[in-house]
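Progress against Task 2.4 (sequence-to-structure conversion) is shown through the following example record, which the project officer requested during the mid-term review.
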Amino acid sequence: MSNPQSHIAVASLLRNHKALKQRQGLFQSRQVDFFRYKRFTRALNSAEYKKKSSQQPDLYPPVNSDEDSKGVFISLIKSQLVVPCTKLHTHECKEHGLKPNKDYPNLLLSNKATLQPDEYYVWNYNPKTLTDYVIVIGIVVGILAFVCYPLWPTSMRRVVYYLSLALLALIALFFALSIVR
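Structure tokens generated for the chain above:
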């Protein structure tokens, strides 16, 4: 599996796979999803992956043994889509200068991936979603609309003026309610 498109295809298919049983953790001060290696091998042996691999063997390499699943996983590590990590306990967090968090376990980058069943790995791959694109387009359109305000027709500017007065009155009403209360 030396094709970079194949790495991304496998990562996209398995990124949110239910067999991984991913959890949230803190890795390098950011919230990430992590999983165990044994869960990854289960996801590779799932019916969904086997169906994709039979339809597109060039993108999804067939997995018939543990050695095949190790090969797929090692290629994901080499392409930096998956990173090995160590889950820290509370006393270990303090030794490494990290603040323990009761909701999210702290994870530390591991130098070596031994592919043991209970070893933890972090996703370093977050595909773009439709929501991401909609937000970016909305921000660009909003900025352009704000900048082009002087070019708007008079009727549109008048509507925006009355809307701003209505919102100002609503804010004043909230302040009045909080004072009366």
